[in-house]
Amino acid sequence: MKFLNKIINELIIQNSDLSQFNIVLPGKRPIVFIRQILEENNYSGFLPTFYTIEELIVNIVDQQTIQGISLWLFAYDVYKSLNLIPNDDFSEFLKWFPTLQKDWDDILKFSDSDEAVLQYMFDEERIKEWAQDLGDDEVPRKKFLNFWRNMNVFLPVLKKKLKEKNWATPGMIHESAKAKIEQFAKNNTENFVFCGFNAFTPVEEKLVRNLLQWDKAQCFFQADKYYFDDERQEAGKFLRNHKTWKEFNDSRAFNWIEDDFNQPKNIRVYEVSGNVTQTKILPELFEKIDNKTFTNTAVVLLDENLLPASLDVMHAVENLNITMGFPLKNLSFSNAVKQLFYLQKQLEKSKSSYYYRDVFPILEELPKSDEDEKTINEFKSKIEERNIVYISQKLFRELLENLSYFNLLQKAQSGYRFLDDLIEFCRKIKWLELDDIQYENVSHFENAFRIIKNQITPYGFDIKMETLEILINQHINSESIDFQGEPLKGLQVMGLLETRLLNFENVILLSVNEGKLPLGNSQNTYIPFDIRRHFDLHTFLENDSIYAYHFYRLIQDAKNVHLLFNALSSGVNTGEKSRFITQIEMESSHQIEHIIVENSSEPILSQPIEIFKTDIVQQQLLKWKEKVSASHLTSYLYNPVDFYLSKILNTSEADEIEEELSIRNYGNLVHFTLQEIYEVLKGKVLKLNDLQDSIKQIDQFIDVAIEKLKHQPEFYQKGMNYIHRAIAKKVTENILNHDLELIKNGNSLEIIDIERRFESVDFYLNDEKSDKVSFFGFIDRIDKLNGTIRIIDYKTAKTKNLTVKIDELNKSDYFQNSDRKQAMQLCLYQYVVQSLPEFWGYPVETGIWSFADAKKGVVSLEFAQGNLDDAMVSIQNLILEILNPEISFLENVKTYNAS
Questions:
Q1: Which residue range or ranges hold the PD-(D/E)XK endonuclease-like domain (predicted)?
Q2: Is the CB of residue 536 less than 8 Å from the CB of residue 111?
Q3: Helix, strand, coil tally for the chain in percent (to 5)
Q4: From 3.90.1150.10, 3.10.450.50, 3.40.50.300, 3.40.1170.60, which CATH number describes the 266-324+485-597 domain?
Q5: Domain locations in the chain as residue ranges
Q6: pLDDT tens, 208-231?
Q7: CA pair distance 455, 474, nearest whole angstrom
Q8: Global confidence as pTM
Q9: Could you give the CA distance from residue 821 to residue 218 in angstroms, rounded to a whole number?
Q10: What class, spelled out in words, does domain 610-655+749-891 have in CATH?
């Protein structure tokens, strides 16, 4: 730590007893390194006193800082007492006050008078109002004017009330310190050492300069000629200003301006395709570092969300110190808590039912006992099986009342009661077997719930769920879990602000993107840029300069610098590298190596899946031969691996809840409706009134079909599902009307069977008839039209390739083509029906009735060339291929050509 070593050496020369110094730092992180340096120098005296500059100013003022939730509650109490319009409730108040409070703190820190700025904002809005005809009171301009009128009343009263309690916001503390600094500097007898500062607020600057004037302080800056001497370099903006202070003269030098940045460095810039992909490069970078203890190496994450992924790839690093906290918002329990509050808000709107998507994430992510796990699994399987999108209160209670935290899923009696329930829940689940991070997560929340409840209770006003949700979300987004590590050795993982005053030989920065470094114009504020400039408040330009300094200061002493940025554009990420990378490329003397890391879109397994027919597989195939259906053969044609998984392993896809009816279930809806209608008419020669009566009752038949699907009737009452039901009704009407027209035109139509099951229909695989399979399946409809038996299969899809052309050349493999699967299925059905004695002597037709073109009626299978015997040869060869131990199940990889 070059800079810290230099400071300590200088101080020891001045006084061998360092307890005479008060060392003031930008943050507390460097203290542990200072102690290490003192130990290495065999220092045996008392340690100096350490302060952050914020702590020093608070000591001068002697006021208690108030911020966060306690400030919001106090401020709202004051706001309510003023009876301002609009008379916002607490949840509305929280939508604007936190942003306003940050602006107010900025005003108090950087301007001479907060009242002057507030009046200016009000006058600005009044001028804008004069400039246009506003009309209605509710237009935005009127609201802004009223807002700043209210703030000119509210904020002075809030300040007065806080002072009465001896409380102060950070901005008020700065304002109070202004009047006390000169006296403090004059009367103080201690010696202060300000280390590594860059930007000061006016009060901080006044404090430092007054102490310097009274010769009770010294400053050590960490500057570099590269950005200090060049006026164009924003990184040196504040330091150049400090150099002009009259306190720095011939008798007091401005220490120190080094020339480290221009020393030889290896700088590599990595253009990476993907955000998390950046972390995958870390192991490769670690291999290039000679010191395998990784002491003097820092990984700096400019995006805290990359911490979990970074830790995953650092498992081989023996000593690891994580300075930055693990963001609470990224943990599963945090997500579940958010979902709980959202569920409560939904229950306030609708007490009749639960939306399954509001419940499932909570059940999945909250820690659970074995009994809870069993209850949840049974609940999910029943909801998925019945495709229940909106779960009634009655059913919800029936299925989940044994859940240990069932009370959290019911509408809360009040916000206070809900907080009590959450505290009790957190207390209980800490007894479960939780991993360390999850235990910390739960403990953080238990503590947060207690604090919020304790702070809200004295005020006594009603707390809406929306208000609690805002408070908890604010907590989730700002809190992190701290790690314990070994800060003095091994790899350091940190955020950019944690690097202040520290120097590393190897520096790896991730997410060096525009918008991450610097943050750019992304701050939430109600004060426009021009007004901020007018009153010397910090804008994004000053913030950019601060980030520029942190960046250049971090790499100025480093020998190996790796800068990674995400080149993919997604969401708010533009895929643009930071301007600081462009600056060092264009302006510095360093040769910079550029590396493009592509995240290949090629699948990991480029080879198709191949499953060999082992002895066990062949045994399963022998069982399969006893029950072979047309759908098995079409499944094999579509993809042999799918056939293996579903027919040999007997696996099936997990049930999923459909919010919109799937194509499969739409087909089932029509299919079941037709089955119900024609089941009643089975065995009859149809008359006009049979079909006319059925047409009138279609809605009832559809309701029965919905029951068969185990769907709720409400599922079809609105949205796209209402339309699907209407289409299903229209398709059913078209089929019935087609049959009706046949009868009207004098045809004789008899329904012989519906959903006809057949099994044990033998089909021989060799001439000796020593090897066979047995067909089984269901025929959707068998009827007799004018003496001809018709075998009808219902399909949701359109008919395709029902004209068969078989000759000697293609006979062996005619159906080895999935495009001909409809024809193959009809050929198999025709073979089955012709083998049944009850249909002997009748002419037989097979055909498909497509729901997509129901008015067209049945499209029949036709043999333009060849006959059924030829077709069965191809089916026979297909079955033999499936049974052939030499032919493995090879995945059929579909390729798509963009055209």
A1: 628-884
A2: yes
A3: 50, 15, 35
A4: 3.40.50.300
A5: 64-165, 266-324+485-597, 329-482, 610-655+749-891, 657-747
A6: 999 999 999 999 999 999 999 989
A7: 15
A8: 0.72
A9: 88
A10: alpha beta
